[in-house]
Amino acid sequence: MEKIKLILFLTLLCSCNTSEKKITKVERISLEAEVITDSIHASLPGRLIVFNDYVVWEEVFASDKFLHVVDLQTRKEVGRMGDVGQGPKEFSAPNISRSYDDYVLVSDFGTKHQAYFSIERFLAGEDYYIPVPNSIKINPKSNFCLLEIERGQFITLQPNSDKLLEHWTRPYFYSFGKFPIPESLRKRDRFSYFQGNVAYNPDLKKLIYTSYRFPYMAIYTKSGKSFKLQTEVKGKFDYSVSSGGEFKRSRDSKEGPRELTLTLDYIVTVDRDLSIDQTDENEVGRDPMKLPHTVFIYDYEGNLLKIVNLGFPVVRIAADTKNNTLYAIVVMDDYVLVKYEL
To answer: Residues 325, 219, 209, 119: what is their CA dihedral angle, to the nearest 10 degrees?
Structure first.
């Protein structure tokens, strides 16, 4: 791999033993959206999580409650939970992820505050706030991304460390994971360019990382208490790194996937299909109308199977590893929660 340029195509799949498999043909299809609710009234919808018959979506700039719960059967919002603030049961900068059973894991960015929100208790009108027990609570260097893969086992993303990921089972943790590029970056650039999404399929024991800023995906397989790199998928990306570790990217280089979710059979990312969409990523900013309309569908070996046009700019996606239904928040006239069958 050259120091200055990484030139590989999205249709190349590189395994961790350096062998390569080429995707000779990628199917491109369009799917019709089935509207769940058009009552997504927020300046910016945050993360989306699926729990059996319910969907939870986060309101990023909420002033009171930051989580909305939608019943997929009635297609109505049944309530909100999660208080914004500085109190003992409040969160000022919440980060949410799906935990085991029907729990949402909520952590407060920059603090040690962690709790579970029980969907079942919330629906029953009971106190849904459950502090993470001290016996399993962890204190990583960074909790920007915190994912509980099994009861008491956590994955954190650590862009400023020597390894990209940490696996915690209190009181122990170990570091693992490759960065999207081999060069060493200065601390400020590491944090900016190595952030990304992490998702886990508990049935297949597959951990997926995608980078926001690089067209890069890594697939790890869990064996016992360790993770082994199975596959890397690398796209075309032009950049340079100075002797002081300053990172510079080519203006026309492709961004990485904006969203990541896992279904029964597929890894799904929100990505831009450059064959039909030449939007300048540098001009997207916070304009939701300039977001990609497409999702890329991979198998769990990292093979790109198809590119699906969802028909609208895609803000968020979520799924359950028990089926191949994809839920999304898209932009029509307003934000709308929809679903697709993959």
So the answer is: 40
Q: Express each pLDDT in 55-76 by its tens digit.
A: 999 999 999 999 999 999 999 9
Confidence of residue 24 (pLDDT cuts 50, 70, 90): low
CA nearest neighbour of 312 among 338, 282, 274: 338
Number of domains in the chain: 1
Amino acid 6: pLDDT: 35
| pLDDT tens-digit series, residues 300-334 | 999 999 999 999 999 999 999 999 999 999 999 99
Domain range enclosing 190? 5-341
Query: Which amino acid belongs to residue 248?
Result: K
Cα separation, 156 vs 166, in Å, equals 5
CB neighbour burial string for 167-203, b if at least 16 within 10 angstroms, e if fewer: bbeeeeeeebbbbbbeeebeeebbeebbbbbbbbbee
For residues 310 and 43, the answer to whether their CB atoms sit within 8 Å is: no
Residue 276 has pLDDT above 90, yes or no: yes
**Which own/partner pairs from 65-68 qualify as long-range (CB within 8 Å, at least 24 positions apart)?**
66/91, 66/94, 67/96, 67/104, 67/117
Q: Which residues contact 257 (CB under 8 A, 6 or more apart)?
A: 197, 210, 211, 212, 215, 217, 269, 270, 271, 296
pLDDT digits (tens, 9 = 90+) for 145-200: 899 999 999 999 999 899 999 999 988 889 999 999 999 999 889 988 999 999 99
Q: CB–CB of 73/53 below 8 Å?
A: yes
CATH number at residue 262: 2.120.10.30
